[in-house]
Specification:
The model has no long low-confidence stretch (mean pLDDT 76). This protein has a domain at 19-155. The protein has nine helices and no strands. With 256 residues, it is mainly α.
């Protein structure tokens, strides 16, 4: 299908379908239910769908009562969407003449298509972008996915190619490739046995301090006198006292 020029349909207030508009719409509508019964109030259901499509965001439960039960109309709308009604109506609008009766309800059809965008999915969005009916999109075109991005870019004129100033050079033999020498930063290796010195003291052999004594090294005499060793054993326990006799002259057991 060739790509057409994108356009916006001017808005129109809701009005019930006229006899001419209904006869132009009737060949695209399913006249029977899935059980094969003929739908008696078919025109009233289409008026209910177009009435609710003119109020964006309105739930089905707010449908006026003279159109019938909201659940019945919502179920009929889903059946029409899965049957491809809005796909066929959009293609018919593109091929119709400007004075065709379907062009009189083009805004109502586009608004109903926006309500069916979630059920139609990507095939419906692809068809809308091909036909250029931006009113049928359920959002701004720049915020919606563009399945025809490659075709859109193919229609754009190619940008002029201008050489970069660094790439422009005098004609002649190509220059010899330069050798890239990667300079490695050498890090000083730490000394395996650094001298012990306090913080802030300069590294000077004259200021170097002797290493601390290792475990088991005897301490100097002055240090041992200042800090005598602590006792490593506890005081001996006292012997238990013998039991004292009671008033009867008998020795009472401590466990009695």
């Amino acid at each position: 299908m060739p790509h057409t020029t994108s356009r916006l349909t001017p808005p129109h207030p809701f009005a019930p379908l006229t006899d001419l508009q209904w006869h132009a719409l009737l060949p695209y509508v399913l006249p029977r239910s899935p059980q094969g019964r003929r739908i008696a109030d078919l025109r009233s259901r289409m008026n209910a769908i177009f009435h609710l499509a003119h109020t964006p965001g309105e739930p089905w439960k707010n449908l006026p009562g003279h159109y019938g039960k909201p659940d019945t109309v919502a179920r009929f709308f889903r059946r029409l969407t899965h049957a491809g009604l809005w796909h066929r109506l959009l293609e018919a609008l593109t091929d119709a003449a400007p004075n065709h009766p379907l062009r009189q309800i083009e805004y109502a059809i586009c608004r109903a298509t926006r309500r069916a965008a979630r059920l139609g999915g990507m095939p419906l969005l692809l068809l809308i972008r091909k036909l250029g009916l931006r009113t049928a999109l359920n959002g701004p075109p720049w915020l919606l996915p563009d399945p025809l991005l490659s075709e859109t870019l193919a229609r754009l004129p190619p940008p002029p190619l201008t050489p970069h100033p660094r790439q422009a050079r005098a004609p002649g033999p190509p220059p010899a490739p330069e050798k890239l020498v990667l300079a490695r930063k050498s890090r000083p290796r730490p000394h395996p046995h650094p001298p012990h010195r306090p913080a802030g003291l300069a590294m000077n052999p004259a200021h170097a301090l002797p290493p601390p004594p290792r475990c088991g090294t005897p301490r100097p005499q002055a240090e041992r006198a200042a800090f005598p060793p602590r006792a490593t054993h506890a005081a001996p326990r006292q012997a238990p006292r013998p039991p004292a006799p009671n008033s009867a002259g008998r020795f009472s057991s401590p466990c009695a």
